[in-house]
Amino acid sequence: MPFNCSRRAFLGSVAATLVSLDARAEPPVAGTKMAGLATLEARKGTARLLPDPAHATEIWGFEGKAPGPVLRLSQGEELAVGLVNRLDAPLSIHWHGMRGDNAMDGVAPLTQAEVAPGARFDYRRRALDAGLFCYRPSVFGATPELCGRGLKGLLVVDEPKSSLKPLESDADLLLALDDWRLDKNGVIEGDFGAAAAAGRIGTLVAVDGAPAPARRDFSPGARIRLRLANLANARIMFVGFENIQPFVVAVDSQPCDAFEPVRRTIPAAPGARFELMFDLPRAENAAAKLVLRGVDEADRDLAIFTTRGAAAPARPPIAAAPQNPLLPTEIKLQAAKKVDLLIEPPASPGSGWRINGAASKAYGGPPLFQVKRGSPVTLGFVNRAAVPVVMHVHGHCVRLLHDLDDGWEPYWRNGVVVPPGKTKHVAFVADSPGKWAVHDDILEHEAAGLAAWFDVK
Question: What pTM was estimated for this model as a whole?
Answer without folding.
Answer: 0.90
